[in-house]
Design a protein that fits this description.
- By secondary structure, the chain is an alpha/beta fold.
- The protein has a single domain, classed as Rossmann fold, CATH 3.40.50.1000.
- The chain is 33% helix and 20% strand.
- A 6-stranded parallel sheet has the order 5-4-1-6-7-8, sandwiched between helices.
- A hairpin with a 2-residue loop joins β2 and β3.
Length: 177
């Protein structure tokens, strides 16, 4: 069984665009900006033996507000820069009842099936309540990257950080104990 780290995309890998206290996805390649330090963080965790995955809701595709080719171009940028095994994306709009849209754990569970992941040895990192709920439902350790958005968590994360560069120290220190 393999250890994994599941990274949300917007807010963890790339900066989320914040309007009125709420995060949004970049709508173009030009709006895409890396979270400071994510490439080094991903490299360090990959070198420590973790498989990295991106799990992301992209509902604007389902709503017809975002072209899937733009999302795929952003995902190619991610895969070119950090060692992710696979990007799992839900394009549903939140109205349809799918199993893949976070806060449901479907994206994580699909990776478990595809790559023989041990959830007890795995982590989810996210910046919104839906991420934390999905990680908790899947049964992995959860890390909330707190940007102080104008929304509340609905379940408690196992850990809270305010800078992605804190992540390797947190995870590797936890493994030593």
């Amino acid at each position: 069984m393999n250890r994994a780290i599941f990274l949300d995309r917007d807010g963890v890998i790339n900066r989320a665009l914040v309007r009125d206290g709420h995060p949004f996805s970049p709508s173009s390649v030009g709006e895409f900006e890396w979270v400071k330090g994510i490439q080094d963080v991903a490299g360090e965790l990959y070198s420590a033996g973790f498989w990295l995955f991106c799990v992301t809701n992209q509902p604007d595709v389902g709503r017809g507000l975002q072209d899937v080719t733009v999302v795929e171009a952003l995902h190619k940028m991610v895969k070119d820069e950090i060692p992710v095994e696979k990007i799992y994306a839900c394009y549903h709009d939140g109205v349809s009842d799918c199993s893949c849209r976070k806060p449901k754990p479907g994206l994580i569970l699909q990776a478990v099936t595809d790559f023989e992941i041990d959830l007890k040895e795995s982590w989810l990192v996210g910046d919104r309540w839906k991420d934390i709920d999905a990680g908790n439902a899947a049964g992995c350790q959860t890390v909330f990257l707190d940007y102080r958005y104008d929304e509340s968590l609905r379940s408690s994360p196992d850990h809270v950080i305010t800078d992605i560069r804190e992540l390797p120290g947190l995870i590797l220190h936890t493994l030593i104990q």
